[in-house]
Prior knowledge:
The chain is of the alpha/beta class. The chain has eight helices and eleven strands. The strands form three sheets. Strands 2-1-3-4-5 form a five-stranded parallel β-sheet, with helices on both faces. The longest helix is centred in the middle third of the chain and has 14 residues, at 104-117.
Amino acid sequence: MNKHILYIEDDPEIGKWVTGHLTDNGYEVVWLTSGERALEYAEPCDLVILDVMLPGLDGFTVGQRLKKKLPDLPILLLSARTTIEDKLQGLHFADDYVTKPFHPDELTARVEVLLRRSGKLVSAVLELRHLLVYPEENRIVDTRTGAEVVLTGKQHQIFRYFLQHPNQILTKEQIYEAVWRECYLEGDKTLMVHIRYLREKLEADPGNPEIIETVRGIGYRVRV
């Protein structure tokens, strides 16, 4: 079941970017542009990502109110403020403090750590042929050798997208636009090259793939 995140951010560009990244990584996101209704939306959520600089109630005030009412709800603060005083003020009630600018993969990793620490995220193991996949740990082990399979950033994003859509036939356009966050141009071989290199690392026989299937004329599929 997807985890639900309440995200409070007034900057439309940053908000859209972060919401898109979290959604692509399998989270259900409710995005608010102010903290006035935070308590109303927070209760059914598994985690809150909260910007400090907000119109009206600032993030420190909103976060303190949330923590008082929902003490077990993990809160991750985002802020351009980098002084130790601000961090200490935030960490007085929040569970983590991330300074801007930040990489979206770092944010996702911190979210997973908080969810796991709070007991809201249980690490599952997925068996795919000769592979053991630990989705929440971003780890893949080849059972034939016991060695960990190391993927590049893009290879990891592509494979993770497959795992978020198990047994579904995904078009090249869907995969490319989800991973690169750009419009797919017909004839572009970028995805095909990445799939080939990904198969070389994952498949027992890359020439006859059994994990990442090609569906002729449409795209690819991973059966789980």
